[in-house]
Amino acid sequence: MPELPEVETTVRAINKFENEKLVAVIIHNRNLRWKVDKTIEKKIVNKKITKISRRAKYILIQFEDLYIMLHLGMSGNLRIQRNNNNHFKKHDHAEFVFKDEKIIFNDVRRFGSIHLTKNPFDHELIKVLGIEPLSNQFNEDYLYEVCKNSNLEIKKILMDQRKIVGVGNIYASESLFLSRISPERIGKKLSIKDCSNLSNSIKKVLKEAIKMGGTTLKDFYSADGNQGYFKIKLNVYGKDGQLCNSCNNIITKKIIGQRSTFMCSKCQN
DNA sequence: CTGAGATCCTGTCTGC
DNA sequence: TGCAGACAGGATCTCA
User: Fold this and answer.
1) Which nucleotide shows the minimum CA-to-C1' distance to residue A157?
2) Cβ atoms A201, A193 nearer than 8 A
3) How confident is the model at residue A212 (pLDDT cuts 50, 70, 90)?
4) Which residues contact A158 (CB under 8 A, 6 or more apart)?
5) pLDDT band at residue A72, thresholds of 50, 70 and 90?
6) Across all strands, nucleotide nearest A237 (CA–C1')
7) What residues of A act catalytically?
8) Chain C nucleotides with an atom closer than 7 Å to a protein C-beta
9) Candidates 3.30.360.10, 3.40.50.720, 3.40.50.970, 3.20.190.10; CATH matching A4-127
């Protein structure tokens, strides 16, 4: 489910809990992508959240002396629910309870995770991450550096979180369409001009998607219960067999790096 | 070091 | 209907 725009949307929805004190923590299932730390409940309960932010696809919740990091994996999401509402859903794995409301972590496939850490920026999963695509460091020069010696398809490069973070399967296909570059183009064949187009397209697509609250294909909901409306702006993702908006050619699907990839072979070279 | 492929898990949809 | 198989927004691990 969640790529950078969906995670960012989720972070904005739970931001209101900054400066609130956690009054209870309940972990129903510790068997997520990684086992949830057994001491997490007692280490964060009764502590105040000082900051909620995002790094790549991780949600960082800072307390006075430590952090928890959440990753939503493929199917995870958070939902805010009033404490007097006792409705639970299948696959609700954790509850973070505040005075009036709680944040519930739900994840059907359990590819998501919850980590406890003193400093996320020293955490092994965070340390290996590449740069943020919406930062100034991400530009044509950076992308060119990353591509110029690579024999991999550009789509694989874009989705490699060690190089660029936050871009997943939807936004990789969409950015490549916007920049008219084929997902199959080999990294080293990209010119600086291509990298300029592509880096700009990535920023544009991600910013627009954030503005629309992310993309809901089927089960992404932000923590406030809203779905994301970027789906109506998708040009190629999930549209194989349909006509390209730009040239009326048929959009095709192809597996690249074990992931479905959508493109217009007439517009993209 | 690189890169390809398997793998974790549950649910839904398609085709026979 | 039933059932097998493919596929789904991610990312790590193993092996060549």
Assistant:
1) B3
2) no
3) very high
4) A164, A167, A172, A175, A176, A202
5) very high
6) C9
7) 2-3, 57, 259
8) 7-12
9) 3.20.190.10
Please give the protein residue whose CA is closest to the C1' of the nucleotide C11: A73
CA of A151 to C1' of B4 (A): 13
Task: Kindly report, residue by residue over A85-121, the tens digit of the pLDDT.
Answer: 999 999 999 999 999 999 999 999 999 999 999 999 9
Distance CA A26, CA A139 (A): 42
CATH class of A140-263: mainly alpha
Distance A74 CA to B13 C1' (A): 18
> Which nucleotide comes closest to A153 if you measure CA to C1'?
B3
- The distance (Å) linking the CA of A116 with the C1' of C12 is 19
Note the pLDDT tens digit of each residue in A17-70. Answer: 999 999 999 999 999 999 999 999 999 999 999 999 999 999 999 999 999 999
Q: Is A53 helix (H, G, I), strand (E, B) or coil?
A: strand
Q: Which of A200, A181, A187 is nearest to A138 (CA)?
A: A200
Q: Where are the domains of chain A?
A: 4-127, 140-263
Strand B nucleotides, any atom under 7 Å from protein beta carbons: they are 2-11
Amino acid type, A25: V
Average pLDDT, chain A: 97
Among A120-124, A157-161, A215-219, whose mean pLDDT is lowest? A215-219
